[in-house]
Structure formats: C-alpha cells, structure tokens
Amino acid sequence: MLNHIVLIKFKPGIKESDIEDLEKHMDDLPNSINEIHTYEFGRDVVHSERSYDFGLIALFANTEALNRYQVHPDHLVVVEKLKNICDSIITVDLEGSDASSLKEKVSASDLIDWS
Known about the structure:
Blueprint: E1 2-10, H1 16-32, E2 38-43, E3 54-60, H2 63-71, H3 73-85, E4 86-95, H4 99-104
Antiparallel strand pairs: 1-3, 1-4, 2-3
Helix pairs in contact: 1-3
C-alpha cells in the first residue's frame, strides 16, 4: 500500500470560510474517487513552531492508483483551492510497513515495565 502524506501551511489571514470550503470538498473526495482506500485530514492541534496548519494522509493500492487520483477532476478542484489559500504544501509518498508484523516479533518479556 502507498501512503500519500500532505502538509499544508495556509496564507496569513486566510478566512475560516475558505478552510471550511476546502474541508467540504476534501470530505467528498472518497465518495467520488474509487482509488482512495483510506482518507484522513484535519487541522493541526498542537500549534508548535514547526507545525503545519493542516494535514492529509491517504492510502492507495499502488503508484498507479495515486496517479489516477491526482488527475481526477474532483481532486483537481481541491488542488486549485489549495493554490489559492496556501503558502506552502509538502508531500511524501511512501510504502508503509505492516505494524502487525512488528508486533508479532515482540514478546511480553521484551516489554518495559513502567510501573
């Protein structure tokens, strides 16, 4: 599976209504783009100096599915909205590890007793 991760910094002074409009359009994407397996997005809650304002994590079967998503007309509407309200957008696409396989390798005796 391919993880598509996007981090967004909004332009200073961006209106709340613009962010809500973006969220509405992003929320609709999984309903119209079959290639999306998992789709989570939201606003930063920590607000540290290094934080971005908004993030997206989407899961796709492979690079070909991601490529189809990126040119889908409904996704392109969101891209145009992002161009108008963002100062910075960074992305990374990575093949995720299977965390369950890691869990199986750890025995109870390997765990730290925090009590």
